[in-house]
Design a protein that fits this description.
- The protein has 4 helices and no strands.
- The model has no long low-confidence stretch (mean pLDDT 89).
- The protein is mainly alpha-helical.
- The longest helix has 29 residues, at 64-92.
- Helices cover 82% and strands 0% of the residues.
- The protein has helices at residues 3-27, 29-53, 64-92, 98-117.
- The protein is elongated and about 50 Å long.
């Protein structure tokens, strides 16, 4: 796995665990689970993007059009995984606390933006 992808996923995991802990202490068990689910959705979508967009395919690295198409496909996978997991969580978890779920999801997405600013 690419080091940048590992860094993003690691930071997302730390944000998710921290938000889950804070939500659990402040709002209780269901809020903690909801926060962890929100972070998990963001992490799963990031992993789906990286798996599709960054997998090597021969000359794709040298071909700009193929590289662009791989990025677009990665975004499609990320979007589909996000929608599917949110639908699954809303359908199956009756005690869902929406605010911790969405706040943690957004906080973990911010890690993506931080990755753009991070220099090697």
């Amino acid at each position: 796995m690419h080091p940048q992808v590992r860094w993003v996923l690691g930071c997302q995991l730390l944000v998710t665990l921290g938000a889950g802990l804070v939500a659990g202490v402040v709002l209780g068990f269901n809020a903690a689970v909801s926060a962890m689910l929100g972070g998990g959705i963001a992490m799963a979508s990031a992993l789906a993007y990286a798996w599709r967009a960054l997998r090597p395919s021969g000359r794709a690295v040298a071909d700009a059009k193929k590289a662009f198409n791989a990025q677009v496909a990665g975004e499609g996978y990320k979007f589909a995984v996000t929608l599917l997991l949110f639908a699954l969580v809303f359908k199956t978890y009756a005690q869902l606390a929406a605010l911790p779920l969405f706040l943690t999801y957004v906080a973990t997405i911010v890690v993506y933006w931080m990755a753009l600013l991070r220099q090697q």
